[in-house]
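Researcher: Structure for this, please.
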Amino acid sequence: MLNRVFRIASTAALLSAALLSTQASAAAPVVTYSWVTTSQGYGSHVDQPSVATFDVPLSVVKSGVIGYTDISNIHLAYPGLSFDNTAVSTLGFDFAAYVDKNTGALRYSDMQQGFGLMAYAGQSVNDATTYLSITFDYAGTGSVVDQYNALNHGAAYAGWPTAGHWVAQMPAVPEPSQWAMLGAGLIGLLALKRRAS
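Model: Predicted structure, C-alpha cell format:
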C-alpha cells in the first residue's frame, strides 16, 4: 500500500514538473542583447556599465528589422549612479535597427538607423540630468559605432566615445530528441497513473 502511494505521489510530482516545463517553453521566446565595452571614453568614471541588457521577441529578430516598440525588459546600470526609469529613443530617420535573421547580430546598414536606450533619474527623460544612454545599431560617424554616455547631475561621469557592441543571445531551441524524450516520459507517466488507479 505504501509503495503504491509513493508511486502515485512520484507520478504526480513528475507530471507537475513536465507541465511546468511545457508552460515555460510555451512563452514567446526572446533574444537578449547584452553590452560589451571595447574602449573607454572620458569622464571621472569610465568603468563599463555593470548591467546593460534588453529583450526582443525572437519572431521580430527573425524578420531582420527591430522596431521602436519591440524592445522590452531594459536593464541599464552604472556604478555609482541611481536610476528610476528607462526609455527608448529613436535615432536617425529609419526608426529601426537591422539585424542578421539567424544570429541577431547588428548589420549597421546606414547612419540613419538605430535607437538610444536610456536609464534616468526622475520621472521625465526630458528633465533628467542623471542618466546612462547607450546606442543600439547606430553607425554614427567615424570608426566608432555604438557608444554610451553617463551623466551625474549634468556632469560627465563617463562619456563619448566610450564604445562597444551588443551581443545577441538567441534562445535555446529543443532538439528533436529532447521532444521525443519528453513525449516518451509523459506516456510512461500516464501509464503509471492509469495502473495506479
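Researcher: Any notable elements?
Model: The radius of gyration is 23 Å. The longest helix spans residues 2-26.
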